[in-house]
Write a structure and sequence with these properties.
The chain is α/β, with parallel strands linked by helices. It folds into five domains: 2-69, no CATH class; 75-205, 3-Layer(aba) Sandwich (Rossmann fold), CATH 3.40.50.2300; 215-374, Reverse transcriptase/Diguanylate cyclase domain (Alpha-Beta Plaits), CATH 3.30.70.270; 378-426; 432-494, Arc Repressor Mutant, subunit A (Orthogonal Bundle), CATH 1.10.10. The protein has helices at residues 30-41, 64-74, 85-94, 97-100, 111-121, 137-147, 162-165, 183-205, 215-225, 235-243, 276-284, 307-329, 347-359, 381-395, 403-410, 414-425, 429-447, 452-458, 464-475, 479-494; strands spanning 2-5, 14-18, 46-50, 56-62, 76-81, 102-108, 125-129, 152-157, 173-178, 255-263, 289-295, 298-305, 333-337, 367-370. The strands form three sheets. It has a five-stranded parallel beta sheet, sandwiched between helices. A five-stranded mixed beta sheet has the order 11-12-10-13-14, sandwiched between helices. The protein has a four-stranded antiparallel beta sheet with strand order 1-2-4-3. The chain is globular. The relative contact order is 0.06.
């Protein structure tokens, strides 16, 4: 007897119980099937539908949730972006994605659509051309890092773009492939990419147990968990901290922050192993100097760097840890982050801020919470959303407006702002911004004689073609077509 997957390409929700040969002496044993069904049901919602005759005795049906869980264990999700229609179609249809351990979830002909797909699906891999209309591959990589730092990016491009692509190395670039491509060459590179992602996830997932507490960790625990405001008066203490790497040259330019991370079970209770400290340090090494230690229920991390470096990286790092925990470990991760402080003597207060941020909000929801997001003026999510929408009304015409720049105006983290807009406005920041710009464009088309190029500029677009593309996608007709229709309607009314 064998288990035969059904509908592997289409995601059909079932496994078939089958004979290899009806003439074989062994027969269907109900007890054996019962044991197997109970085993599968322990992992997924499953039921058996018996078949009376033939090669198949029955079908074990698995719920959609169960199928997704099975698939997520073996397949990395992919979004493909390229403005060359034939190449994009060939990549999507000719590559044996499932065989290579991937699952294609969407494709786009430009950076704007690709970014929306990344927000929607949170893919493991974005395979993108480096030169595309409207948003370049470099800019796309930058924006993807802001909203989905756990997504890896592979570039498709020509020889002349290599130096250009080097600008994006810090944006999780996992591969750079030169055109023209063959199916064989792309297939081989995807196998390599698969191995790289496997290795990256394995390191994060590995249960690296620390044998005892190193001296640096002992010092960190003392400074963070207890209050030693006057420790810096001791020359010996400073020398020891410098030896541990907690002080660097030009100490006045070193800033610190504390981050508290906890993995959750289904009931919202903490289920954080000591090994998670090593996982956090592994991810943080890409951005900042980080030293983490475990205390019951959580991992506490002390991060240090130059003030601007710390400000730019903290939001991205916290998001990536939470996203990686959900993708690789299959568990939600809640994170609380303090304000930046200027000296080791302030670490205890920073720790208290991180813990206060961790305690706020829904204890069962994953994501990062920054103490700065909990100020009285913005503590209510609906109030913050309203303030964000008011700011969009005032600044939508700014071509440089982004989630990061808007969060800076409101003095909150991009992650917190994004979550509030999605929760209370019912759509993502990008879709909200596009809707606002398109509504303004429609109003100008209906009430002014401005040229389309001028309307585009007043609505935050520096490229008229990009504006026209967005407008048609949003409204179903081009700006010129809408203007002609509106003029015809007015003429008819006057007649």
């Amino acid at each position: 007897m064998a288990l035969t997957p059904r509908g592997a390409q289409t995601g059909a929700q079932g496994l078939a119980l089958a004979y290899r040969d009806p003439a074989e002496p062994w027969q269907w044993e109900a007890g054996w099937v019962k044991v197997m069904l109970e085993y599968i049901h322990g992992h997924y919602d499953a039921k058996l539908t018996p078949l009376s005759q033939g090669r198949f005795f029955g079908i074990i049906s698995i719920s959609a949730k169960g199928c997704d869980a099975m698939e997520s264990r073996t397949a990395y999700t992919v979004v493909v972006a390229d403005d060359e229609d034939e190449l994009r179609e060939a990549v999507c249809t000719m590559i044996p994605w499932q065989e290579l351990g991937f699952r294609l979830v969407g494709s786009a002909s430009n950076g704007l659509d690709a970014l929306q797909l990344v927000e929607q699906h949170g893919p493991d891999l974005l395979l993108t051309d480096i030169r595309m209309p409207f948003i370049s591959g470099i800019e796309l990589a930058r924006q993807v890092r802001e909203v989905r730092p756990a997504t890896h990016i592979a570039f498709l491009s020509g020889y002349d773009d290599f130096e250009y692509a080097q600008q994006a190395i810090r944006y999780n670039i996992i591969s750079y492939m030169l055109k023209p491509l063959t199916v064989k060459g792309l297939r081989e590179e995807l196998q390599t990419i698969r191995e790289k992602i496997d290795a990256h996830y394995a390191v994060f997932q590995a249960a690296v147990q620390r044998e005892g507490q190193d001296p640096c960790g002992a010092l960190l625990m003392a400074l963070t968990l207890d209050e030693y405001a006057d420790w810096e008066g001791s020359g010996q203490g400073e020398a020891y901290a410098r030896q541990c790497g907690l002080l660097r040259g030009g100490e006045g330019r070193t800033a610190y922050a504390v981050m508290a991370s906890t993995l959750l079970k289904g009931d919202g209770c903490s289920d954080t192993p000591p090994s998670f400290a090593a996982s956090v340090d592994h991810l943080a090494a890409k951005y900042l100097r980080c030293m983490s230690f475990f205390v019951p229920g959580k991992v506490v991390s002390v991060l240090l760097g130059e003030p601007q470096e710390l400000e730019e990286s903290l939001y991205i790092l916290a998001d990536e840890i939470s996203q990686m925990a959900g993708r690789v470990l299959g568990r939600p991760c809640r994170i609380g982050v303090s304000r930046a402080v200027n000296g080791l003597g302030a670490l205890h207060n920073a720790y208290r801020e991180a813990m206060e941020a961790l305690r706020q909000g829904d204890r069962t929801e994953a994501g990062a919470q920054f103490i700065g997001d909990l100020e009285p003026a913005v503590k209510g999510g609906s109030l913050l959303c309203r303030r964000a929408l008011e700011a969009l009304d005032q600044h939508y015409m700014d071509p440089g407006l982004s989630l990061v720049s808007l969060s800076g105006m409101l003095d909150v983290s991009p992650n917190h702002l994004s979550a509030c807009i999605k929760k209370y406005a019912g759509e993502t920041f990008i879709n909200t911004l596009i809707r606002k710009r398109m509504e303004a464009a429609q109003e100008l088309l209906a009430t002014s004689s401005l040229k389309v190029r001028e309307i585009a500029g007043r609505c935050g677009y520096t490229d008229q073609h990009y504006f026209s593309y967005c407008f048609k996608k949003y409204s179903g007709e081009s700006p010129n077509s809408m203007r002609r229709r509106l003029d015809a309607e007015r003429t008819g009314e006057q007649a």
